[in-house]
Amino acid sequence: MESVAISLHESSGLDIVATIERARTLLDAGDCQAARLLASGAYEQAKAVGGYAEKVKASRQLIDKARRMQADALKIEAYATIRLADEVDAAQKSGVLVSRGRPKNSGRELVLTLSDIGFGRRDLFSARRLRAAERVKPGFIESVIESRMAGGLEPNRKSLASALKTSDRPVYRDLEVSATHRLADGRQVSTLKWYEIDGAIRRAQRDLDILSKVKAHCVPASDDQLIVDVIGSQRLRQMCGGGDE
After folding, report:
1. For residue 128, what is the enclosing H or E element?
2. Nearest CA to 16 among 37, 42, 38?
3. Of the candidates 71, 24, 23, 27, which has an alpha carbon nearest to the alpha carbon of residue 47?
4. Mean pLDDT, rounded, for 4-24
5. In the prediction, which pLDDT does 198 show?
6. Are 54 and 135 in contact (CB under 8 A)?
7. How far apart are CA 16 and CA 144, in angstroms?
8. What digits encode the pLDDT tens for the residues 26-82?
């Protein structure tokens, strides 16, 4: 059975390596859709070869070679997926692509959907999570895959997905939270509960009204003066609602 595994590895290994290299070249050239497609195919092939090698109890060296091809294919697939998410986001922002519903094409304008590019909504969601994890912790993909290899484990898609769930607060959310607007009271928009929006609007409007009154009150002798020194504490308290005007 070992000889059969070796024969299978030799016959398919070269093809898989060639496919991986084509996928890498396409990724470097910016064709992330084609790169992802080729890498996905190479991943499945390498996974099958490795699985069979383990089943027939082939040598560790043979299994490791198959796993290395699987790991390389998985990396390219992951990076291509991230770049595809970038392209999808840019296309949605420009109106070239819609995330759901039927596109409204008119004249020469062509509007596509996610299905037109072979990228489902779940795919996009997963791609954005992976992208965020890689941005928060550069080398995330590499470290997850290589740690599997170092431990003699299969570098599969499931392990990559599981790595995003290793904490109660997934790493991809850290990026999303840090990238959102921070309100005047220090809280971030992304951390607000929906029912808190009205209160936040009222507080923001109140602050705006007070500052508008203060600015319209007078012109200070110097811009670096404290407001209380220009207006006086009693008048300022009245403006802020602490007394009758």
Report:
1. helix 121-136
2. 42
3. 71
4. 73
5. 85
6. no
7. 22
8. 999 999 999 999 999 999 999 999 888 888 888 888 889 999 999 999 999 999 999
For residue 99, report the phi and psi dihedrals to the nearest 5 degrees: -80, -25
Q: What is the 3-state secondary structure (H, E, C) of 147-187?
A: HHHHCCCCCCHHHHHHHCCCCCCCHHHHHHHHCCCECCCCC
- Which of 172, 184, 209, 198 is closest to 85 using CA atoms? 172
* Residue 102 CB neighbour total at 10 angstroms: 8
- Give the bridge partners for 113, in sequence order: 98
- Per-residue pLDDT band for 182 (boundaries 50, 70, 90) equals low
Domain ranges of the chain: 2-178, 189-239
Q: Which residues contact 144 (CB under 8 A, 6 or more apart)?
A: 159, 160, 163
Residue type at 200 in one-letter notation: A
The answer to whether residues 1 and 57 touch, using CB atoms and an 8 Å cutoff, is: yes
Four-CA torsion 204, 205, 206, 208, nearest 10 degrees: 90
**Structural tokens at position 96:** 């070239």
Backbone angles phi, psi at 193, to 5 degrees: -85, 155
Select from 94, 130, 129 the least CA-distant residue to 110.
Answer: 94
